[in-house]
Design brief:
Layout lengths: L1 H6 L8 H12 L4 E3 L9 H13 L6 E3 L1 H5 L4
Parallel strand pairs: 1-2
């Protein structure tokens, strides 16, 4: 699935470890993927392509969120 994410341009080809991170979470059935990686994973442009690649592979895409969003803003 990591290859599908890279091929679908969800993550830049130079960062296969980011695609693997997403693939492992999806294949493990995780509900959430919590990350500070706004450059390659947690941004509105890539999240749409990531979700499409994961769902095309027959998996449910985990919800990709920042730690702040996951824990709720405590300010």
């Amino acid at each position: 699935m990591a290859r599908a994410i890279l091929d679908g341009h969800g993550v830049p080809a130079e960062y296969p470890e980011d695609a693997l991170h997403i693939a492992v979470a999806a294949e493990a059935g995780m509900d959430f993927l919590v990350t500070w990686n706004f450059a390659h994973i947690n941004n509105p442009f890539t999240k749409m392509m990531i979700r499409q690649s994961v769902e095309n592979a027959g998996y449910v895409c985990p919800e990709i969120v920042s730690p702040d969003a996951f824990l709720g803003d405590k300010t």
